[in-house]
Amino acid sequence: MSSSLTPLFLFATVAFGAELQRFEAVEPHMGTLVRIEVYVASEADAKAAFRSAFDRVAELDDILSDYKPDSELNRLPAHPGADLFRVLQAAQQLAHDSGGAFDITMGPVTRLWRSARQQHRLPDPAALGEALQHCGYRKLHLDRATRTLTVDDPAMQLDVGGIAKGYAADEALAVLTRAGVRSALVAMSGDLAFSDGPPGTRGWRIDAGGTVRELSNAAVSTSGDAEQHLEIGGLRYSHIIDPATGMGITRPITVTVVAPNAIESDGLATAVSVMGEVRGLELVRARHGASAVVRER
Question: Which domains does the chain have, with CATH numbers?
Fold first, then answer.
């Protein structure tokens, strides 16, 4: 499961009781570059920590990818494994809390939009309407007691792209922590998860919606249309889909969420993008330890 790309190591010595050094590694996983920083005593420690963390991300990609036909997500087993079930539970809770603004059952619609971006055209309205008939978070049912999954529509397809990278960042960080790494940061596209700050600091210096903050043992996610969008007739359609319409949102919005973990910050950033500033901030305020900055251009 490990990547064939050799990690890139950068380091600088920092005094902190026993001498620690900063190491950084980058590998491609989950359709993006995953960057990890750690402060450890030796290069050997860093290499071992990086390998374990990247292997964990690769394992989760095999489970959660909707691009891989044989992934567990695409097979939709009646008895999902622990990782898939955790992600589905978190997603369904957020779907409920957001009134459906966050919805992982939009797979048939997101696939149409991927093709549309490649062909630089809007999805066919009839095909979009048909795809929407197979979506809806209320058609997906989870039983926590038996850890089982059932669906009302056999044509349902899931897309956990709005929450999976956050979960993977959390899990990579957990691997590093179990390896004894006290100070680490995992960056996956717009999602950051981090433990204690670099030695001698109060926390990691993070740009949280235009304001630099020193944070530790938290996560930050930023969602917007800067990288993935489709422009037609002077209108920019984001890759973030409004489940109510099946259309990419056209509101020029960037959302940055700070939360205790990245699975939460990742999902909230997507939900708030759909809901807009007023309703979205109400959702965030209801989550313990979460805050958000919303910028509408």
Answer: 13-65+164-217 (3.10.520.10)
